[in-house]
Amino acid sequence: MATITRLPFDGKFADLSDFTAANPAIPERVIGGRKQFRTIWISDIHLGTRGCNTEMLIDFLDHVDSEMIYLVGDIIDGWQLKRKFYWPAAHNDIVWRILKRAKRGARVIYIPGNHDEIFRQFSGLNFGGVEIKRQAIHQTADGRRLLVLHGDEFDAITLSHRWLAHVGDAAYTAVMTLNRWCNKYRRWRGLPYWSLSKHAKQKVKNAVEFICGFEEIVAKEAGARGVDGVIAGHIHTAEMRTIDGIEYYNDGDWVEGCTALVEHYDGRMEILHWADEIAAREPLGPERVEALAAA
């Protein structure tokens, strides 16, 4: 029998079966007129890190409903948790909300990424209504077949130079710390949330080349498998485009971009930029700006 690795945070969490029975620290809001979607894809939440934008994600989960939810990897950051345990109550509240959706009848599929690869050993199992899969094929309402995967399988650094991937992760963590200080200053000036790292990636040539190369490789693999498109995470860059006849989608992240990919009931796909959704819903006064920028 294969050995099952003990989770690094065993003893820190309640059992999954206890989550939905517990009361979250941040109560779920009863909101009329929630946005309704057929399917939602979110990834790269990085629970267990200070970079996780819990405020925006909780707001998102309290304002949307769907028949299906795909968790497209790096939901929990095992790399950071191994270095130093960090798990505030709000991170439990995100897990609670996801499990609550499964209990209410939504189909929840979890595709672990490289940061939460420890869960890959449980592929094919179901925990608390959450199905764990290595990859999945999603059929849209209009009949298209989309390959769903995290995407680290196509990252040469992650595959061939694991030590370099960890170095890059440490550098990224440092940038996100700078990002938090930058947004504290913006909060003091009464300005809305802004992603420093996202801006840097758009300006740095090597980062742009890496993202474009990643998208093309993933689309090529999807074409080789005979599907109509592919949905990935991993690179923290939300995107929708067609590459050599293959539909490429990336749902982004909940560290810097705070985005989700959604499918409407007619099969139409859309990327939601949640900071923009909040801004359209209500004016960003000083108190609201402070809450959203404090992640």
UniProtKB/TrEMBL annotation:
<dbReference type="Pfam" id="PF00149">
    <property type="entry name" value="Metallophos"/>
</dbReference>
<keyword id="KW-1003">Cell membrane</keyword>
<dbReference type="GO" id="GO:0016020">
    <property type="term" value="C:membrane"/>
</dbReference>
<keyword id="KW-0997">Cell inner membrane</keyword>
<feature type="domain" description="Calcineurin-like phosphoesterase">
    <location>
        <begin position="38"/>
        <end position="237"/>
    </location>
</feature>
<protein>
    <submittedName>
        <fullName>UDP-2,3-diacylglucosamine diphosphatase</fullName>
    </submittedName>
</protein>
<keyword id="KW-0472">Membrane</keyword>
<dbReference type="InterPro" id="IPR043461">
    <property type="entry name" value="LpxH-like"/>
</dbReference>
<dbReference type="InterPro" id="IPR004843">
    <property type="entry name" value="Calcineurin-like_PHP"/>
</dbReference>
<dbReference type="GO" id="GO:0009245">
    <property type="term" value="P:lipid A biosynthetic process"/>
</dbReference>
<dbReference type="GO" id="GO:0008758">
    <property type="term" value="F:UDP-2,3-diacylglucosamine hydrolase activity"/>
</dbReference>
<dbReference type="GO" id="GO:0046872">
    <property type="term" value="F:metal ion binding"/>
</dbReference>
<dbReference type="InterPro" id="IPR029052">
    <property type="entry name" value="Metallo-depent_PP-like"/>
</dbReference>
<keyword id="KW-0464">Manganese</keyword>
<keyword id="KW-0479">Metal-binding</keyword>
